[in-house]
Amino acid sequence: MRLALLGGGGFRVPLVHGALPAGGDVTELVLHDVDAGRLAAIERVLAEQARGVAGAPRVRTTTDLRDALSDVDFVFSAIRVGGLRGRRLDEQVAAAEGVLGQETVGAGGIAYGLRTVPVAVALARTIAEVAPRAWVINFTNPAGMVTEAMAGVLGERVIGICDSPVGLCRRVARALGVDPADARFDYAGLNHLGWLRAVHVGGEDVLPRLLSDVDGLESFEEGQLFGADWLRALGAVPNEYLHYYYFAREALGADSRGAFLQEQQRSFYAEPSLASWERTRLEREATYMAETREGEREDLEGGGYEKVALALMRALARGERTTLILNVRNGSALPGVPADAVVEVPCVVGADGAHPLGAGPLPDHALGLVTSVKAVERAAIEAAATGSREAALRAFALHPLVDSVSVAHRLLDGYVAAHPELAYLGRQRAQ
Question: Computed over its alpha carbons, how large is the radius of gyration of the chain?
Answer without folding.
Answer: 21
